[in-house]
């Protein structure tokens, strides 16, 4: 949409008719003196503006419009984002190979078929799928990975290179680090990666399906207090349900849920975080969506406007009209006294 920088200048256009009338009807000094004008009384002279005057009036009008600076504005938003640092601590103990059976699977045959065709995934694969979506939704955040079982291992420091992060995430397998669960070790390793961060917010998300069974110099509660000291918020996610099975030697056996819900709630409360429970794949999806909404990236959107100016072009048009008026006046519209 065209707008004018100085629209009040357009009021000068109202003077153009007055200027035109004045130029047409102004009194000129006679060039020839005659004794009588009787022979000319029957001739009615038509007073109308000629081509030069018309061109000059148009040039003046175009010049006034050019001075008002007509332009088209194109608003743009400059997005500045300041991400947060997140470490995802993932339980890699053997129990993460269990399958949490959803309510729609009601028979053993359905269960076997679902495991064979891949429609039912184990706990770790479900977590990996949803964590990948979580990372994809946060391009401005530095995200790191910690894998833990009996001990914790730094798989990837907080980074914006999410493609590199995905390659590490894809390679994770249950049981590669043992069968015990060391929650304190996972928290300590995650906090050590975040404590020196310059991000406005630092978050550690712990995923586990087990209780703290590994020995460590720190208790999980002490590790959480350490996180609080360094302003690291801990969210905990308890994975698993009572309707779970494991595959042992080609045989499917029922497996009870074993994570310590009370401990996970306490760890989150110490640092001002939240506890979530993911009973199955749908539950994990909802948990990750909730964490994504909870941890918002700081985004600024300053607005600026780019203008496309028409004044220079209109000035050229005005000059062309004045030049045409001058040439016309000096050539075929030339009048001698």
**Total separate domains:** 2
**Spatial sequence of strands, sheet with the most strands:** 7-6-4-8-9-12
CATH superfamily of the largest domain: von Willebrand factor, type A domain
**Helical percent range?**
25-40%
Please state the CA-atom Rg, rounded to the nearest Å. Answer: 41 Å
Number of helices: 10
Low-confidence stretches: none
The appropriate CATH architecture of the largest domain is 3-Layer(aba) Sandwich
* Text of the CATH class of the largest domain: Alpha Beta
> How widely separated are the two ends?
51 Å
Can you describe what's shown?
The protein has 337 residues and is an alpha/beta fold. It folds into two domains: 1-22 and 48-76 and 301-337; 80-300, von Willebrand factor, type A domain (Rossmann fold), CATH 3.40.50.410. The chain is built from ten helices and 14 strands. A six-stranded mixed β-sheet has the order 7-6-4-8-9-12, with helices on both faces. The longest helix is centred in the last third of the chain and has 20 residues, at 311-330. The protein is rod-shaped, with a radius of gyration of 41 Å.
